[in-house]
């Protein structure tokens, strides 16, 4: 008599898988060893359920599954033996084959669910977001460096167009552009707040004086950058600010905020 060991965990899926085998067996005697593979409880649930309660639930689950499968599988001259799996299936299969002779093993369990594509899609979005942030940081550094170089070039242009401003070299222009930018970030906001009443009275014109002071202060601490008096600093700062607006506009088109 042919023996077949069958692993099942769902009646409908098991019938669909075993239908060809049942049809081929026909009227020939066949011994079916049906192994019910109960689903595992999660770790959180098993902590609150006793061993006897788990075994009782597994037995009731297996009886219900056998009641759905055995009437269909045991038609004709088939001999059906039921087993509830309580350990590794490989060891159980060896024990059953030793008890019933060499047997064919059929896994009729429902396949494990494939992870939803959404998770991989979200993972891809996360990776793209990280890459976008890295690319954004790199672009920001490139923009800052390019603005520094263009500001130094603008300072050289101011010195070329106006004799009241002198810049010794491009290296000196880069240092001067850095110092002017640093003063505008650190010192200028303080002066703007302190001189706010004067700025209001002059309808904002006093801001040009503050810009000239930053320009003049940078020239006072640097050797390669020289300004001939406050009037030259005022005119030079106006030209430098105008070129700075053009640089900001150009960089805004080259490096969009999005």
Q: Layout of SSEs?
A:
Elements: E1 2-8, H1 11-25, E2 30-36, H2 43-46, H3 51-73, E3 79-84, H4 89-100, E4 104-107, H5 117-161, E5 165-167, H6 170-186, H7 188-194, H8 196-201, H9 206-221, E6 225-227, H10 229-254
Parallel strand pairs: 1-2, 1-4, 2-3
Antiparallel strand pairs: 5-6
What is the tally of beta strands? 6
Using the alpha-carbon principal axes, give the shape.
rod-shaped
Task: Please provide the ordered H/E string of secondary-structure elements.
Answer: EHEHHEHEHEHHHHEH
Going across the biggest sheet, name each strand in turn: 3-2-1-4
Q: What about the largest sheet?
A: 4 strands, parallel
User: Average pLDDT across residues?
Assistant: 84
Count of individual helical segments: 10
Protein architecture, described:
The chain is α/β, with parallel strands linked by helices and 258 residues long. It folds into two domains: 2-107, 3-Layer(aba) Sandwich (Rossmann fold); 139-254, no CATH class. It is 66% helix and 12% strand. It has helices at residues 11-25, 43-46, 51-73, 89-100, 117-161, 170-186, 188-194, 196-201, 206-221, 229-254, and strands spanning 2-8, 30-36, 79-84, 104-107, 165-167, 225-227. The chain has a four-stranded parallel β-sheet with strand order 3-2-1-4, with helices on both faces. Helix 6 (170-186) crosses helix 9 (206-221) and helix 9 (206-221) packs across helix 10. The longest helix has 45 residues, at 117-161. The chain starts with a strand and ends with a helix.
Overview features:
258 residues; alpha/beta; Rossmann fold; 2 domains; 4-stranded parallel beta sheet; two-stranded antiparallel sheet; rod-shaped
